[in-house]
Amino acid sequence: ESDGSFDANDYVLFYAGGPVGWKYDENQKIFKHTSNSYDDYSYAFLTVSLGRGKRISEEPSMAAAADHTVTAFLDYALHESDEINLNHWGRTYYGDKMTGNASKDFSFSFPNADRSRQASLVADLAGRNFTPANYQVYVNGQLKATYSIETTTSNDQKYAVAVGGTMPFFMDSDVVKVTLKHGSSNPNTTSDGYVNYLSLNVWRNLVFSGSQMLFRNPEVESGKTYEYRLSGASQQVQVWDVTNPVAPQVVKGQLNASTLSFRLQGNPSNEFIAFNGQSYYSAVDFGKVANQNL
Predict the structure, then answer these.
(1) Which helix H or strand E contains 243, and what residues bound it?
(2) For all residues of the chain together, what is the average pLDDT?
(3) Residue 73: beta bridge partners?
(4) Would you report the helix, strand and coil content of the chain in percent, each value rounded to 5?
(5) Predicted local distance difference test score (pLDDT) of residue 107
(6) Helices marked H in the chain — which ranges?
(7) What Cα–Cα distance (Å) separates residue 212 from each residue in 15, 122, 238?
(8) I need a surface site. Which of 37, 47, 72, 276 has the fewest CB within 10 A?
(9) CA distance 128 to 229
(10) 19-28, 57-66, 209-218, 219-228: lowest mean pLDDT where?
(11) What is the spatial distance between Cα 223 and Cα 241, in angstroms, rounded to a whole number?
(12) What does the buried/exposed string (b/e) look like for 240-279 if buried means 16 or more CB atoms within 10 Å of the residue's CB?
C-alpha cells in the first residue's frame, strides 16, 4: 500500500463470517448454530475508485488492573450434510442416510481440550420406519442416549419422525468420536435413519493452534476488566477483535515468552481471532456485479 500500487504480491486482508451463525444460549450454556437455508456461501463486495477505503484500526490494551484472567474458551463444531429433503417439504434437509441396522462414525478435533470441564453434544435426527426402530448415540465409545423412533406407515400424514437431544460428556483426549447406530426390528421393511446435524461445544485451553483460531469466552461479565492470556504465541501472531465483524480492530497486546496478553473491558459477546499470517482462507471471485436499484 505504501507505494500506491496494487501489485502481484499484494493482497486484501479482511474478516468475514460464513453462512453458519452461532449464538450463545444462556439457559443451556452452549452455542447454537443457525444455518442459511438459501445459500452455502456468504458474500463480500469490493468497491474501488471511491476514495480511501476502510482500514483496520487499533484497540489498545487497557492499563487498569484486571479483575479476572481468561485462559480458556468455549469452542464449537458442526456436522450438517444437506442432501435430502424428506417428502420434498419444508426447508430442513437431512443427510447420512442409514438403512436397516447400520452405523456411522463422525470425528471432531478440539486441540488443547480442557478435560476438567463438561462438554456437550446435540444430535438432531429423524427416522422413517414401518416397524419399531431406535437410534443409539455413542461418544468416544460410551453409550450416551437411546432414542426410540415412532413408527409410520406409507399412508401416514407424518412422513418421518424427528428425535434427538443434548448429551453432556467429558473429554478424554483432543478428539471426539461420535457413533450413531440405527437399529431396526425388521430391516426387510422400510427402515431409514437420517441426520439433520450434530453440534458440539467443548471448552479448550487458550493455546494458539493452527494458522488461525477464533475464540470467545461467554462467561465474561460486563463492567469488569479481563486479561486474556494466549499461550503458544509468537511475534507473528496477531489478535483481532471481531465482536463487530464489519469493523474489526487489531488488539495491541504484550508478548512475554510465548504468551500474548491483553486487557479489555468485559462483554459476553467479545469475540477474537488470532492468526500467524502463514495462510488465509481465499475468497472465490464471482465477477463484477452490475449496479442495482435496491
Answers:
(1) none
(2) 92
(3) 204
(4) 0, 45, 50
(5) 98
(6) none
(7) 12, 26, 9
(8) 47
(9) 49
(10) 57-66
(11) 18
(12) bbbbeeeebbebebeeeeebbbbbbebeeebbbbbbbeee
Query: Which residue in 162, 196, 184 sits closest to 102, CA to CA?
Result: 184
- Distance (Å) of CA 153 to CA 128, 190, 286, 293: 9, 9, 46, 51
Kindly state the cell numbers that stand for 171.
Answer: 473429554
Please, are residues 251 and 218 in contact by the beta-carbon 8 Å criterion? no
pTM: 0.91
Local structure of residue 113 (DSSP, 8 states): B
**Separation CA 207–CA 75 (nearest Å):** 12
Between 145 and 60, where is the model more confident?
145
Q: pLDDT tens, 132-186?
A: 999 999 999 999 999 999 998 888 788 899 999 999 999 999 999 999 999 988 8
CB neighbours of 184 closer than 8 A, spacing ≥ 6? 100, 101, 129, 131, 132, 133, 191
Residues 125 and 71: their CA atoms lie apart, in Å, by 35
Question: DSSP 3-state assignment of 87?
Answer: helix
The Cα 231–Cα 114 span in angstroms is 14
pLDDT tens readout for residues 240-253: 999 999 999 999 99
